[in-house]
Specification:
Pfam families: HTH_IclR, IclR_C. Keywords: DNA-binding, Transcription, Transcription regulation. By secondary structure, this protein is of the alpha+beta class. It has 2 domains: 1-53, Winged helix-like DNA-binding domain superfamily/Winged helix DNA-binding domain (Arc Repressor Mutant, subunit A), CATH 1.10.10; 57-215, GAF domain (Beta-Lactamase, 2-Layer Sandwich). It contains 10 helices and 7 strands. The strands form 2 sheets. It has a 5-stranded antiparallel beta sheet with strand order 4-3-7-6-5, sandwiched between helices. α4 (57-69) packs antiparallel against α10 (200-214) and α5 crosses α8.
Length: 218
């Protein structure tokens, strides 16, 4: 309503009305003739759609992981889903921690990695099943039950301690695009003790949320 708009803008109703009518004429705002309420107009929606088309969620997530790696003692990366499973496409090493066994293009285990579990929590079952048939059982790991995947969705991410290497922990969280679809997963690898002290899981989830917001997701 006009009164609320004026209040939030810190101006008078007449001034707010003039501004809104200018926006209506430009197509940036529309006004409901019955209620008088305002909403985004076609021009504003067009600008928003054009902006979304320029966004690359993987690049956005990669920037967030580079920034996170500079602040915590962990290697930070981004994985996408391919026909082979979770695949590392961005990898940033911390000044105080580095793991040499992970590189760009590496495929991660479906069941025995935090990234794999996050993908399973959000992707359709048929896409998961196709990769499960491809990955050898010894590499893939043990299939999680539905309760584990539900816990991941509730927590907003997954954690696995000492699953691949002693004293190390892997954490992962989802990044969504403007349509609410999973577009990539961000992840950290670090020492268990360091992750607990520096709150890596909560900071990773925060970074994933920021990447989602910057990609147009909710």
């Amino acid at each position: 309503a006009l009164g609320e708009l004026a209040k939030r803008a810190g101006t008078g109703r007449s001034t707010a009305h003039r501004y809104m009518q200018s926006l209506v004429r430009e197509g940036l705002v529309i006004q409901d003739p019955a209620s008088g309420s305002y909403d985004l107009g076609p021009a504003a929606l067009g600008i928003g759609i054009s902006a979304l088309r320029r966004i690359n969620p993987v690049e956005t997530a990669g920037r967030r992981m580079n920034a996170l790696a500079s602040r915590i003692g962990a290697s930070c990366g981004v994985a996408i889903w391919t026909e082979r499973g979770p695949t590392v496409v961005r990898w940033a090493r911390s000044a105080s921690f580095s793991i040499s066994t992970v590189a760009l293009g590496d495929v991660l285990p479906l069941d025995n990695s935090a990234c794999g579990l996050v993908f399973q929590a959000y992707l359709p079952p048929d896409r998961i099943a196709a990769v499960r048939r491809l990955q050898p059982a010894a590499f893939r790991g043990t299939r999680p039950d539905a309760g584990i995947l539900e816990t991941i969705r509730e927590a907003g991410g997954a954690e696995l301690n000492e699953h691949l290497f002693s004293a190390l922990t892997g954490k992962a969280a989802p990044v969504f695009d403007a349509q609410g679809e999973l577009c990539c997963v961000v992840t950290t690898v670090s020492f268990v003790a360091t992750a607990e002290t520096e709150r890596h899981f909560s900071r990773l989830i925060e970074a994933a949320g920021q990447a989602t917001a910057e990609s147009g997701g909710a």
